[in-house]
Amino acid sequence: METKLVHITTAKGPLECQLAAGKILAALLAELRQKGVQAEVIDRTAGQENGTILSATIQINGIAIQTAIQSWLGTIQWIQQSPYRPNHGRKNWFVGIFEVNPVEITGWDENEISYQSVRSSGAGGQHVNKVSSAVRAIHKPSGTMVFVQESRSQLQNKKIARERIREKLEKVQSEKLVSVINQTWSQHQELERGNPVRTFTGMDFKPKKAEKTFKKQRNKLKQELKKELNG
Length: 231
Fold this sequence. Notes:
- It contains four helices and ten strands, in the order E-H-E-E-H-E-E-E-E-E-H-E-E-H.
- The protein is an alpha+beta fold.
- GO terms for molecular function: translation release factor activity.
């Protein structure tokens, strides 16, 4: 089973690029799921309008998934008159998709948390120091530790401790992901607009069929032959 991260970015493009990015995200997810590949959006930055995004990161799991995503990696072109600026002359909008180096994920398993009962401290009445209701909890794989004494119930304090450890682990994973994306992004600040790997057209976002190379060559030869005959 492979795991890959793919990042979609507008590269600080205008609102039209944000709309294209939202459509690309939906199209990519639909294609991956159609191929039986597991895909989950693990990070998303919303754009300025409904249906738009500035960026998104997708975690993809499966076997031989490189083949499934390879044709998406690079610059995606969307050909469409701006729905936001009708008089704007530009009709070509570009969005980048690139693979992100894997982030080491610390697994979340409640069974890997150890608890230590300790006496509560501070205000709380005459019984606060007589009962070991406070809890020190440690997530052993990551070393994440929390101390909870909110409740006189040790069971309730354990529940609070589990939730706080989960929140801390999620924050760490999010920070790792942002760091990796920023490092990768420094190498992809300029989108290659002249050679898109995929092109879509219209508000319904239909794929533009690429003209086959042999057809281009045949037409070129015909034109050259015609010029020679006329010359």
